[in-house]
From TrEMBL:
It catalyses: L-gulono-1,4-lactone + O2 = L-ascorbate + H2O2 + H(+). The keyword Signal applies. It comes from Digitaria exilis. InterPro entries: ALO_C, FAD-bd_PCMH, FAD-bd_PCMH-like_sf, FAD-bd_PCMH_sub2, FAD-linked_Oxidoreductases_BP, GULLO2-like_C, GULO_Plant, Oxid_FAD_bind_N. GO terms for biological process: L-ascorbic acid biosynthetic process. Residues 1-25 form the signal peptide. Gene3D superfamilies: 3.30.465.10, 3.30.70.2520, Vanillyl-alcohol Oxidase, Chain A, domain 4. This is L-gulonolactone oxidase. Pfam families: ALO, FAD_binding_4, GULLO2-like_3rd. The keyword Oxidoreductase applies. GO terms for molecular function: D-arabinono-1,4-lactone oxidase activity; FAD binding; L-gulonolactone oxidase activity.
Length: 591
């Protein structure tokens, strides 16, 4: 067991104690790969979707570099009744939002994929304090352009390897209950999108929307279902600095003090490690421009990782899973937490090393990170840890959004009860990654944004390479998932989660009818629909159940065959939430 701990700790320390050096890292592969005569295939950055693991074949791919070219591409597709979807140069969305196939036949006959990889211009208006970016513009390029003009973007997701169009359309966010809040779409003041039209109007048209327009709330978080977003204008603020300190506390009061923490600190978050009874409070506020410090947020999980190291860690984790070695998994979790604490979770006081708190730096260097995402292709030593080409990390990412905040309090209490019943070791799986990351977003004007101030909880955990393979503590994580989305009515993040998290999602958004009306108005023929939207928007999640469907999150079990009775996993009630149905390991079917 000590060897397991030390291996994991050594790898993490090697990663976090070196200066960021893009030349050492292989950039992510492009999401679209085409083969002469065989068409093209779309995949996400993880190499597998959450709803299924099938490839997404497409008949044609367009790479427009201007709005006029987007308009022409949509018009051609509209004239031929093709299915159309949009993908960026990054494709970090976990559900199959971007796949234009309707799931029938080979899916390649009437589909068009529009890539925004070349639609990436950025223009800052310093006088108006706005930045207008093409939909495919990388978040990092937008932030850097603003900072170069003495301005800052107040909100951003923690991972910077995303496009502006993608992050706005899926409701991506940072963390804040202050001002306009932590969701980027709530800082949008205008956008343009191309929508289908009839033949008399040239088969496609451009819509320009500003805050206050009737269709603006529907277009903010549109999931790619209304048309193709081409440009987004965001409000900016005068450039500012931030000061970050991580405070480690016992988790005994997290359910009672999370709201006060969010109210007290502008960019607060909390990382909860339930197996270790520890909560890490991020004390994160603005600092004066003349405050000393040129810090950088280079989160340890988003740094380039030696390919051999991530392959070794994945092999170790898989071995522990197969042998049901809970203690070994807990040793990995302890090593992860120890390494993060030692190196300030990737914060660097001078851009190179962590030397102590507080870490002070400009907003553009502190608000987001992802150094593994922008690297030249000539070095093959390192990559993002989840790059599917190198058999590294492979995990589920569940994100539950609770409102009113009191529901999060009850969720925490139920998870603590589950910890008491199942044992703290049963929760080590989430602590191997990043525990429960707790963030805060404000009520939004977007129809598919949050209807009131909310608490967002992210948790990652092991995903087997074979969808028919059960996981260690399978029942515990299925119960946590159902506690969140069923018992406490949490809403799923649109760009994350297993398919089961979206069951009943329409009833969780009070303005769903307004969004649906806008969709019928802008895309009456369903050009931008796909199999995923048919299931989720159409309310068909989990209706078709096959053998083993619960193991990969495609259904909630109601019969043993939905688990894996051949491997000793049977459908059983939850330990705390008795209405939950989970796949639990048992040496006998009668237990």
């Amino acid at each position: 067991m000590p060897a397991t701990f030390l291996l994991h700790l050594l790898v993490l320390l090697l990663l976090s104690c070196r200066a960021p050096s893009p030349a050492f890292s292989l950039p992510p592969r492009p999401p679209v790969r085409c083969h002469s005569g065989d068409g093209c295939v779309l995949s996400n950055a993880y190499g597998a979707w959450s709803s299924d693991r099938d490839d997404c074949p497409v008949a044609a791919v367009a790479y427009p570099s201007s709005e006029a070219e987007v308009l022409a591409a949509v018009a051609r597709a509209s004239a031929t009744s093709a299915r159309v979807k949009v993908v960026s140069a990054f494709a970090h969305t976990i559900p199959k939002l971007a796949c234009p196939s309707n799931g029938g036949g080979n899916g390649t006959t009437t589909t068009l994929l529009i890539s925004t990889a070349r639609l990436d211009a950025v223009e800052v208006d310093a006088a108006a304090r706005t930045v207008t970016a093409d939909a495919g513009a990388p978040l990092r390029a937008v932030i850097d352009a603003a900072e170069a003009r003495g301005l800052s973007l107040a909100a951003a997701p923690y991972w910077e390897g995303v496009s502006i169009g993608g992050l706005v359309s899926t409701g991506s966010h940072g963390s804040s209950w202050w001002g306009r809040g932590g969701a980027v779409h709530d800082h949008v003041v205008g956008l343009r999108l191309v929508v289908p039209a009839e033949e008399g109007d040239g088969w496609a048209r451009v819509l320009s929307l500003r805050r206050g327009d009737e269709l603006f709330p529907a277009a903010l978080v549109s999931l790619g279902l209304l048309g193709v977003v081409t440009k987004i204008t965001l409000s900016l603020e005068p450039r500012f600095k931030r000061s970050i300190t991580y405070e480690y506390r016992d988790d005994s009061t997290i359910q009672d003090d999370f709201a006060a923490h969010a109210s007290r600190h502008e960019f607060a978050d909390i990382t909860w490690y339930p197996s270790q009874h520890t909560a890490v409070y991020r004390v994160d506020d603005r600092a004066p421009l003349d405050a000393s410090g040129d810090g950088v947020n280079d989160f340890i999980g988003f740094q380039a990782t030696p390919i051999a190291a991530t392959a070794a860690l994945r092999a170790l984790e898989t071995s522990l899973e197969r042998s049901k070695n809970v203690k070994g998994e807990c040793a990995m979790a302890s090593a992860e937490a120890a390494a993060k604490r030692l190196v300030g979770n990737g914060l660097k006081n001078n851009g190179v090393l962590f030397t102590g708190y507080p870490v002070v730096g400009y907003q553009g260097k502190m608000q987001t990170s992802g150094s593994c995402a922008h690297s030249p292709a000539y070095d093959l030593l390192s990559a993002c840890g989840w790059d599917p080409r190198f058999h590294g990390l492979f995990f589920y990412e569940s994100t539950a959004i609770f409102s009113p905040p009191a529901r999060f309090r009850e969720f925490v209490l139920h998870v603590k009860r589950l910890r008491d019943v199942a044992g703290a070791d049963a929760l080590c799986g989430v602590d191997v990654y990043n525990g429960f990351l707790v963030r805060f977003v404000k009520a939004s004007v977007a129809h598919l944004g949050q209807p009131e101030d909310s608490v967002v909880v992210d948790f990652n955990y092991y995903r087997a390479s074979d969808p028919a393979t059960p996981r260690l503590s399978e029942d515990v994580w299925e119960e946590v998932e159902q506690l969140a989305f069923v018992k406490h009515g949490a809403r799923p993040h649109w760009a994350k989660n297993r398919l089961v998290a979206f069951d009943g999602v329409r009833g969780k958004y009070p303005r769903w009818a307004q969004f649906a009306a806008a969709k019928r108005r802008l895309d009456p023929r369903g050009m931008f629909d796909n199999k995923w939207s048919d299931e989720v928007v159409g309310g068909e999640v989990g209706r078709s159940k096959g053998d083993g469907c619960a193991l990969d999150g495609r259904c909630v079990c109601s019969e043993d065959r939905h688990c894996s009775p051949g491997q000793g996993y049977y459908c059983r009630p939850g330990l705390v939430f008795s209405e939950a149905r989970v796949c639990r390991y048992s040496v006998s079917q009668n237990q």
